[in-house]
Amino acid sequence: MAELGYLLMATAKQLKYQLNNALEEVGVTASQWAVLAQIVTADNPLMAVEIASVLGMDKPTTSGIIQRLQSKAFIIKKPAPLDGRATILLPTEQGRAIFRQCTTVANREMAKFTAALDAQQKQTLTQLLTIIEREQSHG
């Protein structure tokens, strides 16, 4: 039996590779989609440092992704209401539309990626990964 750590890393790497290839059709990478998802789904406008923290990215990587999303007109930057030196990130209508397209592509790819599993196995895998992720992010 292969080591669990290796299996998790190899599987995550393969999924990201397949997702990046599939997302090429809408012109974004998996990392850009992850940042855009944070901006689109947030209850309140976010700053770059908050996105970096949630996604576990360093600031330069996050800044580069934000610049690319801004150059594609998917997001805009505005001064933060309480601190004019800080900026908040907001999705544009085009950004919201691309986010929806990305979600459709990602759902399709996940269905392909997990096609070897039956519904019960998918549910069990989701539950187990949720437990691990929750423990790692809050533990």
From TrEMBL:
A Pfam family matched in the record: MarR_2
Domain HTH marR-type: from-to ranges: 1-134
Record PROSITE patterns: HTH_MARR_2 (PS50995)
InterPro entries: HTH_MarR-typ (IPR000835), MarR/SlyA-like (IPR039422), WH-like_DNA-bd_sf (IPR036388), WH_DNA-bd_sf (IPR036390)
Domain of life of the organism encoding this protein: Bacteria
GO biological process: response to stress
Any GO MF annotation of the entry: DNA-binding transcription factor activity
SMART domains reported for this sequence: HTH_MARR (SM00347)
PANTHER family: HTH-TYPE TRANSCRIPTIONAL REPRESSOR YETL, TRANSCRIPTIONAL REGULATOR, MARR FAMILY
Protein name per its UniProtKB record: HTH marR-type domain-containing protein
